[in-house]
Amino acid sequence: MLDAFEIVPNLPVLVVTTPLIGGILTIAMGRGKGPWAWATLITGLVFYFTVLLMQQVLAAKTGFISYELGNWPRQWGIEYRVDALNAFILLTVAGVAFVTTLYAQKSVEKEIPQDRHNFFYAVWVLAVCGLLGITVTGDAFNVYVLLEISSLTVYALIAMGKDMNRQALTASLRYLILGSVGASFILLGIGYLMMVTGTLNMEDMHDRLAALPDAVHNRTVLVAFAFLLCGLGLKMALFPLHMWLPKAYTYAPSAVSALLSATATKVGIYMAFRFLFTIFGVGFSFVAMPANVVLSVAACAGILVTGVTAVRQTNLKRMLAYSSVGQLGYIVAGFALANVHGVAGSVIHIFNHAMMKGGMFMAAGAIMYRLGRCDLRAVRGLGKRMPLTMAAFVAGGLGLVGFPLTAGFISKWYLVQGALEAPHMWPVAAVVLVGSLLAVAYTWRVVEAAYFQEPEGDSALVTEAPLSMVAPMWILIGASVYFGVSATFTGEISMRAAKSLLGGAP
Amino acid sequence: MTGALGIYNYWIYVLLMMIGLYGVIAKPNLIKQAIALGLFQTGIFLYYISMAVIDGGTAPVWTTILDGAQKYEGPYDNPLPHVLILTAIVVSVSVLAVALALIINIKRTYGTIEYDEIEAMDQADKRADYQRGQVVDAADDVEHKLEGHHHA
């Protein structure tokens, strides 16, 4: 049946076109449950495509699939190129998108007026389209265009929280301005690269940069590198360029926070992989240029500062937002090590963190659904009232800490191993451990409130969140526990991705 | 023209970009920030267009098709950056549209588009929440001051 529609050979482009067309059609799905059901169908379909794509990539002899849009040769046209790394990220993004769409139904009904649901889900599906597009493409300018598709839709999604709190509007505008500056820096960087190499295809760019006699002293290349590093830093919310993130995640609708925390910044990091490793290459980025020093210092400072800030927060969503910046720090510190275990730890943590933090934001959203707020005072005594939700939060928190048998443990194992293997990088290992202690501190504050304090006010009366919210939450948290116990699949994929990024066998 | 003056397009692009960046950072009025963002992006468009120029080059149009007689054999300017910027202009217009939509909504809910005043109103909201016994302990305020400091 699949072959009849020629789905398999066209998978790379279907991953983008399905949500692109589906997203626009969402607007026509009426005012009831229609838009939600349609969005679920589309994201489910896309998830299925990414699973198929993953199988194809694993089966491919070369280790990657190359797809030329409209059969234009890659020198002129756009090439979509899927290897172990982006197949894995695609699977993560599409999977989380599907599960959060399931979760969104009740949450969105509560937080967003009925007459805007069709627009909400349209923008939601288009955001997923942009994120998947960035991940699948092998063309540098296509990255910029899809980046703007995802950014514009994300600004709109965040602003939809305005009916809960008007600060969503200012949070969205601030992100819009910083995000556009970041994207413009990326556009400039791509321009300078095109000036030197005369191509937009990532692989060709790499080959021509490598062929330059003296790339390290070529001013144009250096300027491109600087602009790209700066723009990517803004987009992936690398400390201290993260100032847009906490407010945006706090005031966005709960379902949007869950989706963004698990996908948006992760795709930013994926772009960093492509630009730093695939285009410039390890030799340029990390040996000739001090990107490893800049990135690991920023990442380590980020882990510590945002960890301390997270401990001081009283709003759960804000706490999780700061924690996200810290966790992104782990991912960046990992790939800045530029050795196999560091990069593999980074890739695996993209997946693990998406599961844990997505699940935790869903738990915060469930509390929001029942109580209309999610501060520490509202959480008091909820351990008995909403046992499944709070248990999910705690399980996710244990993952952030890196407790054995959770996915977080696996990530940190790889990261610490990478840090100890790299020369003079042991402080990174120390920071990873201190960061874990900070995660204990902020998770404990919630545990204490939920399980050791008596409920007050409304909290005494609430019941467990509806099944349609608890089930998706536990799918993500369950995945984070499952891949903590059995990390063979994620481990193998990320080792393979790391080796191909570092220039070994694919 | 040679030397630094010969590439005056690039000087203008840097100048436009810097004016834009300054506006984005320094202007408290949200509309002015949006205008500055537009200026910033326009600078980048100029950069791309300048990069396409070749000495003695002309528009990449095949003249035989137009007049049927003579055929001009290059050199042509590189059409690719022009095409890319056509896309980037569309993107920039969309960004501006979303920004203005947000600003209209901000004006409706806050009654102002001055960043300082909005910030003050958010602080007042926070104090009201505190008095109602919701959210906030001292830590939130400290952190908020920190954020304000960064913005300034």
Automatic annotation (TrEMBL), chain A:
Q: Where are the transmembrane segments?
A: 12-29, 36-58, 84-104, 119-137, 143-161, 173-200, 220-239, 251-273, 279-307, 319-338, 350-369, 390-414, 426-444, 465-485
Keyword flag Transmembrane helix: yes
Where would one find coiled-coil regions in this protein? none
User: Highest taxon of the source?
Assistant: Bacteria
* One Pfam family in the UniProt entry: Proton_antipo_M
Subcellular location(s) per record: Cell membrane; Membrane
Keywords, ordered alphabetically: Cell membrane, Membrane, Transmembrane, Transmembrane helix
Keyword Membrane in record: yes
For membrane topology, the record states:
Multi-pass membrane protein
Q: Which residues form the NADH:quinone oxidoreductase/Mrp antiporter transmembrane domain?
A: 139-433
Report the sequence similarity comment from the record.
Belongs to the CPA3 antiporters (TC 2.A.63) subunit D family.
Q: What is this protein called?
A: Monovalent cation/H+ antiporter subunit D family protein
What is the scientific name of the source organism? Answer: Nannocystis punicea
TrEMBL record, chain B:
Q: Which Gene3D superfamilies match?
A: 1.10.287.3510
This protein's record includes keyword Cell membrane: yes
Q: Which key words are in the record?
A: Cell membrane, Membrane, Transmembrane, Transmembrane helix
Q: Does the keyword Membrane apply?
A: yes
Where is the protein situated, by its record's location annotation? Answer: Cell membrane
Pfam families in the record, alphabetically?
Oxidored_q2
Query: Which residue windows are transmembrane per the record?
Result: 6-25, 34-54, 83-104
Q: How does it sit in the membrane?
A: Multi-pass membrane protein
Query: What InterPro entries does the database record attribute to this sequence?
Result: CPA3_antiporter_subunitC, NUOK/Mnh_C1-like
Query: What's this protein's family per the entry?
Result: Belongs to the CPA3 antiporters (TC 2.A.63) subunit C family.
Q: NCBIfam families in the record, alphabetically? A: PRK07375.2-3
Name under which the protein is recorded: Cation:proton antiporter subunit C
**What organism is recorded for this protein?**
Nannocystis punicea
